[in-house]
Amino acid sequence: MSKRIMVVDDDKEVQEIVAFVLHYNDFEVISAFNGKQMQRQLTEHHATLPDLIILDVMMPGEDGYRIFSDLRHNPQTRHIPVIVITAHTEDIYQRVSVDLGAALHLTKPFHPVELAEKVKVLLDEGQEPSIEGNRN
Q1: What is the CATH number of the domain that holds 72?
Q2: Any domain includes 130
């Protein structure tokens, strides 16, 4: 059975590219454009929660870190690894990701194939890649 990945990003192009690469690597992908849609899908599919969440920090009207904090305070979702993606390059954002317990912090733009490889490491081998950011 393939692993389920939820991609939460308001940028449709980012969602499509990430979903394409993850599908190609045999992952099932669930997409949400914001925190409310993510919460609705988590509630509707609570029996089949995602194995990993890829979460954008900057979304209109919502703070991805607030959404992440809510995930960590919910007993049903606190165990789900979260990869944080953001266009912010300042070190404070990476620090917040670490403090919240992110499995990985990636700075946009990132290479989708690199993301898929890191997802494989996280889920297939049960190992956690180190927190890092791209400086492109």
Answers
A1: 3.40.50.2300
A2: no
Tens-level pLDDT at each residue, the chain (136 residues): 689 999 999 999 999 999 999 999 999 999 999 999 999 999 887 778 999 999 999 988 888 999 999 999 999 999 999 999 998 888 988 999 999 999 999 998 899 899 999 999 999 755 444 444 443 4
Determine the structural domain holding residue 84 and report its residue range: 4-124
Q: b/e per residue, 101-132, with b = 16+ CB within 10 A?
A: ebbbbbbbebebeebbebbbebbeeeeeeebe
The strand order across the sheet containing 52-56 reads: 28-32, 4-8, 52-56, 82-86, 104-107
Q: Which SS3 state, helix, strand or coil, does residue 18 take?
A: helix
Identify whether 131 is part of a domain.
no
pTM higher than the cut 0.90: no
The whole-angstrom separation of Cα 46 and Cα 83 is 20
Structure tokens at 52: 């990993």
Cα-flanking dihedrals φ and ψ of residue 46, to 5°? Answer: -60, -25
Tell me if 50 sits within 8 A of 4, measured CB to CB.
yes
Domain presence at residue 133: no
